[in-house]
Amino acid sequence: MAIANKLENISVGDFGITYTLTLKDSTGTVQDISSYTTRKVHFTSENKIKTFTRTATFTTDGTNGKLDFNFADGNLDQAGVWKGQVELSKSGAKVNSVEFDVVVGSRITP
Question: Which one in 8, 13, 86, 98 has a CA-CA gap of 20 to 30 Å to 29?
């Protein structure tokens, strides 16, 4: 399963903003993910030192392949190209998306 979008325009220290991911197959067709009961998004920093997981929710009912999540305070503590991966599970099945980029820019502090 692929992610249709890369996350950009995020700065070190950003949190509390809702981001939406769309899951599609290799042909670009949106995937119905409504039957999955557990939805997580895993992240790792560019240098692989920091990892964390966020819980995701359906944007609507999951039939449109869309998941919402947000970062918590302290999650994004370094600039760089982070990697993300969605994990979906239900009774008898677990699937992971391909990795996607999360571009985190530096913050200018006066």
Answer: 8
